[in-house]
Write a structure and sequence with these properties.
Two copies of one chain form a homodimer. In chain A, helix 7 crosses helix 11. Chain A has two domains: 198 residues, NAD(P)-binding Rossmann-like Domain (Rossmann fold); 104 residues, Orthogonal Bundle (6-phosphogluconate dehydrogenase C-terminal fold), CATH 1.10.3660.10. Chain A is of the alpha/beta class. The first copy, chain A, is built from 13 helices and eleven strands. In chain A, the strands form three sheets. A six-stranded parallel sheet of chain A has the order 3-2-1-4-5-6, sandwiched between helices. Chains A and B meet through helix 7, helix 8, helix 9, helix 10 and helix 11 of A and helix 7, helix 8, helix 9, helix 10 and helix 11 of B.
């Protein structure tokens, strides 16, 4: 395993956990925070974190480090401009929850960077440096962009960082990633919001909410997430999310028609039961070991992701 | 508190838990099961349970017991016909999750019964006698039908049974109950089914399910319920459920329009956040004590339910 140094831009829940996990794995790590207050919190915990992005990037050039963008999507372009100015050909990945939008911005603002996108799929409803923990990525899925033409050396850097943090790598094309997270992360947030609003009903009648128990509590849990976090995540994945919303609207409309005409809901309920059973069957993915050589290696890696399996290390 | 004997028809999760809870509270209890196999399981646990409904109902007449119907909605008419034949004026309540449909059937098949509907709002995704437990109703909401003209003596019998089982009574008109459960129980099951089907996506691609974590797991939990239980519950509440589905479709359609045009989701996400906050605020209802006298007592009881409060005992 390489011991490549890691520079983390952004010290929120994900960036802060990454600094802790990579340091615990023995890596040389440093980072930058958006505010001096946060940087001071991180330094108080023993980490090399400042607010001088240019200085952090000069150290990247000196050490050939891997840069991890862990800022919200709207903050990405400004960071990329500094990368293009100071460390234009650096090894670059990110931890943003959408991948096509970030790739577009890298192509526009830092086109010489050796970029391989990433998405460690871990999180809590907490946020900020203090919420971070070295164990956040343990056994989590860490998606790595696996499109044709990307830099295999940086792909390996990102994979080794993911494994060092305890995660399992899921290889995926970036458009397939965005469609997948629209279905299983962004749509759930929007359906939870709709359900919470319908359940709340009229302001002068608390009977529905008073009777709400398990099914409502679970179905609306993520509606309690801070709205700005949900908006940043969902609005950055608009095209893929529209496809998922249209799929849901189509199924809900067909169900409404069946309920009004025959009164039957069997097709809806059985498809949902089958989907949940299939999800349960994916909870124990096959751990694969790989080699990054051969002509069709990226296509083979993408197949691992489509099978629902995970990559846990190199094959000798 | 009265020590009225209790006859439970049906020994699934709810009926089986009710037998255990009422016996633990010191009541004389017996019941009937749909199959000899289930009856034998219940007897092995020390309960008086057979399959001879007529014999159980003759004992009801002898002891002036309270009958609790705890069978699925489709099985209700057959039981009511036997009640009309053997114990036509018995004290009768039920534990079915819809109330207008059961009231209609009582009016049709056992019109002389002294019927006051009930709905103990407790459950797990488990079912059957073995899944039952005496503590199932602890602190649960137990809705009691509170429409004008009903038998106050039987209302008191049902309330005392609910309290004996550790539940808190929520008084509600049956049509308001059905609209409320459509919003906070039946709609959540259908949205969970839709979400599970959308998340499962195409049969040859497990990438979405492999990436599914907290938001999908919670949002689809009740899609894992046995389909026939969900169908019996939802299809029996068709009119109220149509209203809830239309509310959800309207909100989802408006959200789709906003996402496609401005790309903004703030209205949806903020309404959902507010709904979830309002739900959290109803988690600690005011415990009320009541007297069952005075001219407007039933209307006053219904107001307690609309305020989201609960009745925990008699006022001296």
């Amino acid at each position: 395993m390489s011991e490549r140094a890691v520079c983390v831009i952004g010290t929120g829940l994900i960036g802060g956990s990454l600094l802790r996990a990579a340091e615990k794995a023995g890596r040389e790590v440093w980072g930058t925070a958006a505010s001096e207050a946060t940087a001071a919190e991180a330094r108080a915990d023993g980490f090399t974190v400042g607010t001088d992005l240019d200085a952090a990037l000069r150290r990247v050039v000196e050490t050939d480090a891997l840069v991890v963008l862990a800022v919200p999507l709207p903050a990405v372009p400004d960071v990329l401009r500094r990368i293009d100015a100071i460390a234009p050909t650096c090894r670059l990945t990110d931890a943003v929850s959408v991948k096509v939008a970030v790739a577009d911005e890298v192509a526009r603002y830092a086109p010489r960077a050796r970029y391989v996108g990433g998405h460690p799929m871990a999180g809590t409803t907490e946020s900020g440096w203090a919420a971070g923990q070295a164990s956040l990525f343990a056994d989590a899925a860490w998606v790595i962009a696996t499109d044709d033409g990307l830099d295999l050396e940086v792909w390996a850097d990102v994979a080794e960082l993911a494994w060092a943090c305890g995660a399992r790598v899921v290889p995926a094309a970036i458009d397939e990633h965005d469609l997948a997270v629209a279905r299983i992360s962004h749509l759930p947030h929007l359906l939870a919001a709709v359900l919470a609003a319908v359940g709340a009903g009229e302001p002068d009648d608390d009977l529905p909410l008073a009777l709400a128990a398990g099914s409502f509590a679970d179905g609306t849990r993520v509606a309690g997430t801070r709205p700005e976090l949900v908006l940043a995540m969902c609005e950055g994945n608009r095209d893929a999310l529209l496809a998922a919303v249209d799929d849901a609207l189509g199924r809900l409309g067909a169900m409404r028609g069946a309920l009004a005409s025959t009164g039957g809901l069997a097709a809806t309920v059985k498809a949902g039961y089958a989907g949940r059973q299939r999800w349960a069957a994916t909870r124990d993915p096959m751990p694969e070991r790989i080699r990054l050589d051969g002509p069709g290696v990226l296509a083979e890696l993408r197949e691992i992701g489509r099978r629902g399996d995970v990559v846990v290390g190199w094959r000798e």
